[in-house]
Specification:
Blueprint (H helix, E strand, L loop, with lengths): L7 H11 L12 H4 L32 H15 L3 H16 L4 E3 L5 E3 L14 H46 L5 H10 L7
Antiparallel strand pairs: 1-2
Length: 197
């Protein structure tokens, strides 16, 4: 059997000619012919219900209900960042909850203690300055984190030096050949690990 090579457009044309034609579709009969005595009545469509309810403007957030300190902080964020009062208030409440949860727990009705934690979700469009409001409310926390990180790095460097000195002294005691077991044990006990101090 020989293989015939032809251009693609010619092959498509040949296939189209060779395909059987579908039978013609008969014209639709009027509905009155299909069901004699049937009277068609045009019905009015009911009013469409919108998929999303229309948005109404929210009532102003009662910043005064947050108290003097938190209320003034939220009002300042509202003015500076140009966000709605509710967004500013939520950022301030979240920052206050973060600060307070270290100091207090909640006692449940059945007696167990649980952390005093609040979880916030701000729902707003992209570009509505949610992150900017949070950054303003949390800058004292970020500043404290930076100070604590710097203190930790200084203390950690000091600990590494003390630990290296302790490890060298420990190796020297373990390697000295003139000590009996009890003397060596007492020497090691007298030089407790700096991690335990």
């Amino acid at each position: 059997m020989a293989i015939r090579v032809i251009p693609l457009d010619q092959a498509v044309a040949e296939q189209t000619r060779a395909a059987p034609k579908p039978p013609p579709v008969p014209p639709a009969r009027p509905l009155s012919d299909q069901a004699p005595g049937l009277t068609l009545v045009k019905q009015e469509r009911p009013e469409r219900i919108p998929l999303v309810p229309p948005q109404t403007s929210a009532a102003p957030y009662p910043l005064g209900a947050l108290g003097t300190i938190l209320g003034h902080a939220a009002a300042a964020i509202e003015r500076k960042v140009q966000v709605p009062g509710a967004t500013a208030a939520q950022s301030v409440l979240a920052a206050a909850a973060l600060a307070a949860q270290t100091y207090r727990d909640v006692q449940m009705p059945y007696g167990r203690l649980r952390p005093l934690s609040l979880y916030f979700v701000t729902v707003a469009d992209s570009g509505d300055r949610k992150s900017a409001a949070d950054a303003e409310a949390l800058w004292p926390v970020r500043r404290l984190e930076k100070v604590l990180r710097e203190e930790y790095e200084i203390e950690h460097a000091d600990w590494l030096i003390r630990h290296a000195a302790h490890a060298a002294q420990k190796r020297a005691i373990e390697a000295s050949k003139g000590l009996d077991v009890e003397t060596r044990t007492n020497e090691l006990r007298s030089r407790a690990s700096p991690a335990n101090r």
